[in-house]
Design brief:
Elements lengths: L1 H6 L2 H5 L42 H11 L6 E4 L2 H12 L6 E4 L6 H8 L3 E4 L10 H7 L4 E7 L11 H10 L3 E5 L21 E6 L12 E4 L2 H10 L7 H12 L1 H23 L4 E4 L6 E6 L2 H10 L5 E2 L9 E5 L3 H16 L3
Parallel strand pairs: 2-3, 2-4, 4-5, 5-6
Antiparallel strand pairs: 1-7, 6-7, 8-9, 9-11, 10-11
This protein binds pyridoxal-5'-phosphate.
Length: 352
């Protein structure tokens, strides 16, 4: 606690947050003349005329049950990216302090760092896309406030080794962010059950992937109550819209739907890996714990452009230094995967 407080940028501790009209009264039955809302209703059929709950109690209650985490240890963001940005703002002095990332990894860490004028130190993953633990430890200094570990990692698809992440959690005095956006595809690999052991750990998850709710923008951060209080203090007051809260709550009622989608993805992933490995254009399919595959192909740039022209959109990672010749391909429905494979076969048989 004391330790966490010392990590914060001092002015954040002093900051007096905005108090919203609705902070004063809890309850639904009252005459609300405090927030300059339109009492006659909305321009839509459904009613959205009242400001939403700034702390999203109902949604958090549901998440607390599903994840088995106390609600005081849950923060909700307008996408995971909001939580990432707030962590930079809370902990890193611009132009002075730094964060460690392990490329190839999720691009948002670097963008968010740049936006906040925070220096990034890169310690690349090894040839198996696993952590260089000694290298990361050597890169840590007094100035290192954040360490980003993405597991399963985007764009490589694999989960990081649990022992390595734990070694780093034990040796790093700053905030370690474990980005588990794809954890629903390998739930047994989550570090969330270790939350109580590591006060400096922030686990990030999202409704955007397995839950199929990318459009509503709901990211979750799980951490020590002190960190959650800080994130709540510095977030925009109504960062999660009422529409998002309602739809998130509905989605969270249907965990079985999410599980069925995950099972379907596993099944399709196995089939897709086997089919891709049969193709001459494919050099390597990297192991995946997620809902996408990193695939090394011959003439990646040309294959990418050809697929684009055939209206099959994949992610071109060929220019990422550690992913030379690679495309990142999301596991689709059986029909989508069939089309992808058909186009790749057509490419192989066509003139080059
Ligand atoms: C997709 C993804 C996210 C999720 O971002 P949202 O803002 O919650 O949609 C976070 N981290 C990684 C590594 C991702 O690939």
């Amino acid at each position: 606690m004391q330790e966490l407080e010392k990590l914060l940028r001092p002015h954040i501790l002093q900051l007096k947050p905005y108090t919203s009209a609705r902070d004063e009264y809890e309850g639904n039955e009252a005459v609300f003349l405090d927030a300059n809302e339109n009492p006659f209703g909305s321009a839509t059929k459904a009613a959205f005329n009242r400001y939403p709950d700034p702390y999203q109690k109902n949604v958090k209650q549901k998440i607390a049950t599903i994840k088995n985490v106390p609600k005081e240890q849950i923060f909700l963001g307008n996408g995971s990216d909001e939580a990432i940005d707030l962590l930079f703002r809370a902990f890193c002095k611009p132009e002075q302090e730094q964060a460690i990332i392990t490329p190839p990894t999720y691009g948002m860490y670097e963008v968010s760092a740049a936006l906040n004028q925070v220096n990034i130190v890169k310690v690349p993953l090894d040839e198996n896309y696993q952590l260089n633990v000694a290298g990361i430890q050597a890169a840590m200094s007094e100035k290192t406030k954040l360490l980003f570990l993405c597991s399963p990692n985007n764009p490589t698809g694999n989960a990081l080794k649990r022992e390595d992440m734990i070694t780093l959690l034990k040796s790093f005095n700053g905030i370690t962010i474990i980005d588990e956006a794809y954890i629903d595809y390998c739930p047994e690999k989550s570090l969330l059950p270790l939350l109580a052991e590591f006060p400096g750990m922030v686990v990030i998850q999202t409704l955007s992937k397995a839950w199929g709710m990318a459009a509503i923008r709901l990211g979750m951060a799980f951490a020590h109550p002190f960190i959650i209080r800080i994130l709540n203090k510095i977030k925009p007051p109504y960062n999660i819209s009422g529409a998002t809260q309602e739809l998130a709550w509905e989605a969270l009622q249907n965990e079985d739907k999410k599980n069925a989608a995950v099972a379907a993805t596993w099944q399709e992933r196995t089939k897709l890996i086997a089919a891709l490995q049969q193709l001459d254009v494919v050099e390597k399919v990297f192991p995946s714990d997620s809902n996408f595959l990193l695939v090394q192909v011959k003439k990646a740039q040309e294959v990418f452009e050809y697929l684009l022209q055939e209206k099959v959109i994949v992610r071109n990672r060929a220019s990422v230094p550690e992913c030379a010749g690679c495309l990142r391909i999301t596991v689709g429905t059986p029909e989508e995967n069939r089309i992808l494979l058909e186009k790749l076969k057509k490419w192989e048989s066509g003139p080059k």
